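Q: Structure tokens for this one, please.
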Amino acid sequence: MARQTSIINDAQRKLIKEHPQKSHDILRTFGVDDIDQLDIVLWHHEADETHGLACTIECRRILRVADGFVAKMASRKTRLAMSPMGAVKAIFLESTQGSASPGAAMATALGFYPPGTYVQLVNGEKAVSVARGRRANNPHVVSIINPGGMPLSKYIYRDTTDPHFAIRSPINAEKSKSRSVLKKSIEGPR
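A: Here is the predicted structure, written as tokens:
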């Protein structure tokens, strides 16, 4: 989780705005000289697609959508993370004609519960999504907390297409009283 406890200020907004140029410059100092790759990084925040090379438009759209999707699902001290389904919905609502296709492709590839998403199963267990399943709403999950709220000594794969292990709902780890249990369960013994 980010350490910032207040809404971003003007100086931080400026850094965010300058990030594509700085990232481009860093890549150049590392010896990256691929014109297309540098163009994608340089113009990925720009919604005006007349900037940059015509041949990189689709790649810039994909990076812009992915950047926004990840940002929406990242928690901050000033706000909770958006749920994966909420992030997918927001990507579609914010999409332009050009960005709708990358957003749909991302939702198709990741599913409704991208890896790392915490979920409550019908049987009362809490699990974490580890991969997209055959269907967007049936990811591969691993149970980490038993129905009584205790960490499992061994993680258990659950098939979410089985009605006994279907997903009841996503869990926002920051809101969950079992956040420390979830964190300890993932980190393991020290």
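A few notes: The chain has two domains: 10-110, 118-187. The first strand starts at residue 118 and ends at 121.
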